[in-house]
Design a protein that fits this description.
With about 450 residues, this protein is α+β, with helices and mostly antiparallel strands. The chain folds into 2 domains: about 200 residues, Acetylcholine Binding Protein, Chain: A, CATH 2.70.170; about 220 residues. Helix content is about 40%, strand content about 20%. A 6-stranded mixed β-sheet has the order 3-5-6-2-1-8, with no helix packed on it.
């Protein structure tokens, strides 16, 4: 047993050297009269079967604006070369060799929808040549393919990108191209942070182009992608929703603060910045993305709220020369809408609004705005006092007192009209605040529901 082991150890290097010499002799014999320019078939009238298998390794980039998908693929092609066969027993049992791919004939399989300006092909890797003539060529390739991008539901969209492989010069009567499996291989796929791969089905098509009468087969892999929307939700959608809820709060600001219009304009500018960020990454097409529609609707709503704010501020600052509030406005705004929006002054509540709003303007209470202090006492004393001793019978004094009382009544009436218009403005502020809050909420629900 020991002698056999020693003999095996001594003969092993010699055997390896002999096999190397046989491999060199095999390579010399195979390519002595071989040409890599001709299709390797015994009968030129028969088509050569070529099988194709694509393995998706990584999605490098998806350029939505230019509609280009950059991916890293492993492309396997297999065919039978009838001129490269040998008897393995005649070459010390060598069953397969690995040689540069430039030594043998290769099918000119290319990516039809290539979008690379350099048109770089696969890497020059080795091929595996077996004794029965079967050749397997595995080559990695970084491809840029054109992909029709539909951003109607961005950022909740999905894309279907096609990778079409076929021969550029050989028709279907010369090369019969077929897919090895019904789907692309995704076992070695590296997960992408932005896109989720749902599948990669493969289909074989036979197309007759307008330039030629012969059929041309191709294998099309359809890459089914779905965008991971978390990044866009937290960086584009949620900030927009939060900014949108600031717009109705402009109605809650006091009109005397001077910041109502400034808040609306600031919110409008913020949404414009978000809209520009979305427009920079989207292709210039007629299809407006979902988030873009939401931005436009929100900007329109904020523009309307700013215009209404200007109108309401004009009502609030109408001044002493304003006309009295019309009766219909008193009933509708100061009574019903005030109770609905819970707008009340000091001393009243939503359940018991002030009753003075419903009576006529000229009607006054004793000691109210229409009666000056001390005027009643002057009248009583004028009726029962002595003419010579009472100062009430002096005409100049009476005219001055009447003038002061008239000015006081006018001032109180002006204050009352101004207060009523201010309350009208306050009720309209509260009413539109709740209306716009409801609109923002409904728009947000519609966007999320349509995306789902």
């Amino acid at each position: 047993l020991l002698t056999l082991c020693l003999t095996g150890c001594l003969l092993a290097p010699g055997c390896q050297g002999a096999q190397g010499r046989f491999a060199y002799k095999l390579l010399h014999d195979l390519f002595a009269n071989y040409s890599s320019a001709l299709r390797p078939v015994e009968d030129t009238d028969r088509a050569l079967n070529v099988t194709l298998q694509v393995t998706l390794s990584q999605i490098i980039d998806m350029d939505e604006r230019n509609q280009v998908l950059t991916s890293y693929l492993w492309v396997r092609q297999a065919w039978l070369d009838a001129h490269l066969t040998w008897d393995k027993d005649a070459y010390d049992g060598i069953d397969s060799i690995r040689i540069p791919s430039s030594y043998v004939w290769r099918p000119d399989i290319i990516l039809y929808n290539n979008a690379d300006d350099r048109f770089g092909g696969s890497m020059e890797t080795n091929v595996v040549l077996r004794s029965d003539g079967h050749i397997t060529w595995d080559s990695p390739a970084i491809t840029k393919s054109s992909c029709k991008v539909n951003v109607a539901y961005f950022p909740f969209d999905g894309q279907r990108c096609r990778l079409t492989f076929g021969s550029w010069t050989y028709n279907g009567n010369q090369i019969d191209l077929r897919n090895r499996m019904d789907t692309g291989d995704l076992t070695d796929f590296v997960e992408n942070v932005e896109w989720e791969v749902l599948g990669m089905p493969a289909t074989r098509n036979v197309i007759t182009y307008g330039c030629c009468s012969e059929p041309y087969p191709d294998v099309t892999y359809t890459l089914l992608l779905r965008r991971r929307a978390s990044f866009y939700i937290f960086n584009l959608l949620l900030p927009c929703i939060m900014v949108s809820f600031l717009a109705p709060l402009g109605f809650y600001l006091p009109s005397d603060s001077g910041e109502k219009v400034s808040l609306g304009v600031t919110v409008l500018l913020a949404l414009t910045v978000f809209q520009l960020l979305v427009a920079e990454s989207m292709p210039p097409s007629e299809s407006v993305p979902l988030i873009g529609k939401y931005y436009i609707a929100t900007m329109t709503m904020i523009t309307a709220s700013t215009a209404l704010t200007i109108f309401i501020m004009n009502i609030h600052h109408c001044g002493p020369g304003a006309r009295p509030v019309p009766p219909w406005a008193k009933r509708l705004i100061l009574h019903h809408m005030a109770r609905l929006c819970c707008v009340y002054e000091v001393g009243e509540s939503c359940k018991s609004p002030q009753q003075v709003l419903g009576r006529p303007v000229g009607r006054e209470e004793p000691g109210g705005p229409g009666e000056s202090p001390g005027e009643g006492e002057v009248g009583m004393e004028a009726g029962g006092c002595h003419r010579d001793r009472c100062l009430c019978h002096h005409d100049g004094l009476l005219r001055n007192v009447n003038y002061i009382a008239t000015c006081f009544r006018r001032h109180r009436a002006t204050q009352r009209r101004t207060g009523e218009w201010k309350k009208v403005a306050k009720v309209m502020d509260r009413f539109f605040m709740w209306v716009f809050f409801l609109m923002v909420f409904l728009m947000s629900v519609l966007v999320v529901g349509k995306a789902a």
